[in-house]
Specification:
- Strands 5-6-7-8-9-10-11-12 form an eight-stranded parallel sheet.
- Helix 6 packs parallel to helix 7 and helix 10 runs parallel beside helix 11.
- The protein has eleven helices and 14 strands.
- 48% of the residues are buried.
- It has 328 residues and is α/β, with parallel strands linked by helices.
């Protein structure tokens, strides 16, 4: 079955400057992919790419352009894994194909992937780096979320995390230094953060320093993020991390993300699903994987000032499945 493929560059403006240890983000660049089959059915997908690996809308469009002829001749999701490399371009095309399949066959991605309907899940809301006073104020505004994620940089985060805990005393907290700490930092800081409702430390150390975490006495679970793109990377996390943060832009789409989840669970890891920001069209396929995850961080649209008209519903920290008008 031949397919018409249209890919365009976009950028979603952030609601406020989004600061992490690597820098500050004012917008979320992405690409939108539309697949059209000979019967007129259309599937849509979005890819934000891996910014810290140098992906941009231009590089993602070039990835698709290089295999345009091969893609237009028709493909399934398994074949797509051999045509495009992991990353934002394949993520967008894979999502569009899941959407197209749902429309052609009248069966949702939840049913195809999980054998059941999708349900609302608790998602984190991410608080970027800011002043101590602003940490508490922002946390208070999102205190109805069961889970908050807090971005921090180098140095002792106790004052910042204490402020978040004061603002949202009932929320469980994920702390994300984005590789800004050493293993010594992790061990020292974790003991002080334990009483502040911190349940997870996400990729605190630089990629490549995994061995320094082994044999440490760390009372809070550790999640690997930038370290893991697909199943072949999992061995690097053994003995150092407890949870794998799966992002569809890293795996190159939901199809490969589900494979990564299967292998991670088989190796004894817990599952988290995250995002690179992005619109509801990025969150929709990730929400399928979220049905299997202990930790969900799909707050991209909440960090942006714009979204699609048929946006996913966020309600008191609960993210509902996408409507068919949006995806799937």
């Amino acid at each position: 079955m031949s397919l018409e493929i249209e890919a365009t560059a976009m950028a979603w403006p952030m609601r406020e400057p989004f600061a992490i240890s690597r820098g500050t983000q004012l917008e979320q660049p992405c690409i939108h992919v539309r697949l059209t089959d000979p019967d007129g059915f259309q599937g849509h997908g979005e890819g934000c790419g891996i910014i810290y690996d140098g992906e941009t809308p231009e590089t993602m469009l070039l990835d698709i352009d290089r295999v345009q002829r091969e893609l237009s001749q028709g493909f399934d999701r398994e074949t797509l894994l051999t045509i495009l490399p992991k990353g934002g371009a394949r993520c967008a095309v894979d999502a569009a194909l899941w959407d197209l399949e749902a429309k052609r066959h009248g069966r949702s991605p939840y049913e195809r992937a999980l054998g059941r309907k999708g349900e609302a899940v608790d998602t984190a809301f991410t608080i970027g780096i800011r002043s101590i006073e602003a940490f508490e104020e922002t946390a208070s505004a999102y205190a109805d979320f069961a889970l908050l994620k807090v971005k921090v940089g180098p140095g002792d985060p106790f004052e910042a995390i204490s402020a978040v805990h004061r603002g949202a005393p009932d929320a469980k907290l994920i702390i994300d230094p984005n590789q800004a700490w050493s293993a010594d930092d992790v061990e020292a800081f974790a003991r002080r953060l334990l009483n502040l409702n911190v349940v997870l430390l996400e990729q605190p150390i630089p990629v490549g320093a995994e061995a320094t975490l082994k044999e440490r006495d760390i009372p809070i679970s550790l999640a690997a993020d930038e370290l893991i793109n697909e199943a072949d990377d999992l061995e690097k996390a053994v003995g150092a991390f407890d949870v794998i943060n799966i992002k569809l832009d890293k795996t190159g789409g939901l199809t490969n993300a589900l494979k990564l989840a299967d292998q991670a669970e088989a190796m004894g890891f817990g599952l988290m699903v995250g995002c690179m920001a992005g619109s509801s069209l990025s969150m929709a396929p990730a929400h399928v994987l979220a049905q299997r995850c202990a930790y969900v961080d799909l707050d991209g649209p909440l960090l942006q000032s714009q979204d699609y008209p048929d946006a996913m519903l966020y309600e008191a920290g609960r993210l509902h499945p996408a409507t068919p008008a949006l995806w799937g």
